[in-house]
Specification:
The chain has 193 residues and is mainly alpha-helical. 64% of the residues lie in helices and 4% in strands. The chain has eight helices and two strands. Helix 5 packs antiparallel against helix 6 and helix 6 packs parallel to helix 8. The longest helix is centred in the middle third of the chain and has 27 residues. It is elongated and about 75 Å long.
């Protein structure tokens, strides 16, 4: 609950007051009992309505994720889910799960873009993507594997070994075996070490 410890009647009253205050802020021109322009209620669910004046990072993120992933769109998406954003949602399980799903989708798309860059021969750009991903998703095996592959692509054996160490730490922390792709990259770096 939003206000733990309160009995249901008090929570309901607090919610009505909070919603009234919210409507005053987001619909300043609304009068008295007039319906909100930016908040809609339907079957007990409250939803915000996007407009030129009122938007949401989550709506923008969903728009970016629903489109074809590009270097630019995934960079914008990563910025929306950067560390610290969404921390306040972790207290509400449903919101935390929904936000975590968006973060996972964002990381997967950014990894795919990094892999495409690497396949196209732009290992330096793939390194940049991988390094940015490690900051946002330090426990992503796919991002760790991209970091290894991109380091190999720019012939930086020191960075590749560091990426292998980071990847092994991720796998150990998650208590999982490497995927076949990651295992192949790990063996490749071991051979050149």
């Amino acid at each position: 609950t939003i206000w733990p410890g309160d009995y249901p009647g008090k929570v309901s009253a607090r919610l009505r007051v909070t919603l009234s205050q919210l409507r005053t802020v987001i619909d300043p021109d609304r009068t008295g009992k007039e319906a909100s322009y930016r908040l809609r209620e339907h079957d007990g669910t409250l939803a915000a309505v996007e407009s030129d004046w009122f938007t949401s990072d989550v709506w923008r993120l969903e728009e970016l994720l629903d489109g074809s992933p590009t270097l630019e769109s995934t960079a914008e998406a990563i910025e929306i889910v950067r560390p610290g954003v969404g921390d306040d949602l972790q207290e509400i399980a449903e919101l935390a799960t929904a936000f975590d799903t968006l973060v996972d989708r964002t990381v997967a798309q950014r990894c795919a873009v990094g892999e495409q860059l690497l396949a196209a021969g732009d290992a330096r750009a793939a390194c940049d993507v991988a390094n940015g991903l490690i900051a946002v998703a330090p426990l992503s095996e796919r991002a760790a594997a991209l970091s290894i592959a991109a380091s190999l692509g720019v012939s930086d054996s020191v960075a590749a070994r560091a990426a292998v160490d980071r990847c092994r730490a991720v796998l150990e922390q998650l208590d999982v075996d490497p995927s076949p792709t990651t295992a192949m990259l790990l063996r490749r770096v071991e051979r050149i070490a």
